[in-house]
Amino acid sequence: MKDAGFIFGSYLVTLGSMVVFALVTLRRGRKSSGGVSDSDKTWL
Amino acid sequence: MSQLVTSTSATGTRATRVLGLLAILVMLWVVIGGLVFTPQDVVQGESVRIMYVHVPSAWIAYLAFILTAVASASWLIGKKHSMGFDRFAGASAEVGVMFMAITLVTGSLWGRLTWGEFWQWDPRLTTTAFLFVTYLGYLAVRRLEGSAEQRARRSAIIALLAVLEIPLVHFSVVIWRSLHQGATVLNPSGDVKLDDLMLFTLFSGVVGFTLVFFWLVLHRQRTMLLLDVVNRRGLDTAIANRRAEGSTN
């Protein structure tokens, strides 16, 4: 494939950003969840 | 107290797990379809494959900022000033900024292949960069000192002003002479000049990115709620300690 570096790079940046954002968000949620009772978690 | 200790669930539910699984499946198709199955473009050749991630990320960033404005307006207008609207606005803006960053990076990679330059001070590129910086400012304002209500009010007003930039960005290719191509799909004539498989993959990208967006926003706003509860508890404890100190003196 011509210009594969640019094309794969764009997919890598896109998927990588989503995965990193998701992991950071889940980690933050897990970290702050410990001190909060289930009654405050309106989604449960 | 035992409830606090035994609580292990974080921000996920069955619905978010289903949403996440759907998002992964659609995104898998976008990657495989975009990189393998879709044909080359007659003019742009292989570089057109970047379109399947660049265009959906731009559209979902617009969607995110519009939803931020809607949630902000709901907070301002609503009699109860529900903080849920403010948290949704903040979460949506954060995810929108991420998609806008993806748009700028993938756009500059695509630009290098088509124009020979990573960046041009072209109307579309410049207004997009301006939109990105505006929402970085919005996120910075959300981190300023003050109560949750002050944060919500300040950021809601900025969100309602910032969203006005979106039409400017979208129509910049029409208003000014731009190096950036005009709208291929969302054009006024409705005449879409794309191969069926290319169009299907592009719309799969839009669906996939939308699913990812809602998954991220749901988790992020729930994390914000948890942080608000923790902060409120910390404030309540500090006030109680100060009162106790005052009564003993």
Report on this structure:
The complex is a heterodimer of chains A (44) and B (249). Chain A has one helix at residues 4-33. Chain A is mainly α and 44 residues long. The mean pLDDT of chain A is 90. With 249 residues, chain B is mainly alpha-helical. Chain B has a domain at 51-184 and 206-222. Chain B has helices at 2-6, 14-37, 51-77, 83-114, 123-142, 148-162, 165-175, 196-248. Chains A and B meet through helix 1 of A and helix 2, helix 3, helix 4 and helix 8 of B.
Short structural summary:
The complex is a heterodimer of chains A (44) and B (249). Chain A is mostly helical and 44 residues long. Chain A has one helix at residues 4-33.
Identify the notable features of this structure and list them briefly.
heterodimer; A: 44 residues; mainly alpha; 1 helix; 68% helix; rod-shaped; B: 249 residues; 8 helices; elongated; disordered N terminus
